Amino acid sequence: MRHPIFKNIGLKVTAVLLSFLLWVFATSRGVSEISLDVPLEFKNIPNGLELMYYGVKVVNLTIKGQERLIRTISPADIRVWVDLSKAKKGEGIYAINKNNMRLPLTVTVKNITPSSVKILLDESFSKRVRVKPVVIGEPKRGYHVKSVSVVPRNIEIEGASSKIKNIDKIKTEPIDITGLDETLTEDLKLDVSGMNIRTEVEEVTVKVVIEKEAR
Length: 215
Fold this sequence. Notes:
The chain is mainly β. It contains 3 helices and 14 strands. The strands form 3 sheets. Strands 2, 5, 8, 10, 11 and 13 form a 6-stranded mixed sheet that branches. A 5-stranded mixed sheet has the order 6-4-1-3-7.
């Protein structure tokens, strides 16, 4: 005698298939994809090396998730980085993969563009250089600049060897003496824009001594 479990087996199989299809339909409803541009970070740069160049600053991610949740996600919610702990001096190509990302739990990554980045590492180097005050303008008529001084006069800078070796001075931001008839002392920032270096201090004190011209 046929076991009851095999009775109407065709209907039972059909019911199971329908249930599965309904589950797939229900879970896939409201699923959406978006693309976001996320800044690329670099971690674990070895001691004694400096990151000089990298060909990619932003990574485009295609992410997938429930539509109502994915709409609230912004680039600030995602981090993408390259691990340079095993990097060596010179040029190299490093992979950008899903293992080096922090994502909201509600989404998955479908695509990463680009999938790699070319970078250049150079040796670290430091040295002391002089600080050059930048004075603009002219004092009041009948007055002149007697002297210009800066404290400290020399500072230590650090960065990539190929860049640091060509630097012999660091300028200050301008100090304007237009129309002045007395000594001016100001704390000024160092002008290191575009140099990609580090300095032991961020500001120096510049003193411009102004005195009346002798008749």
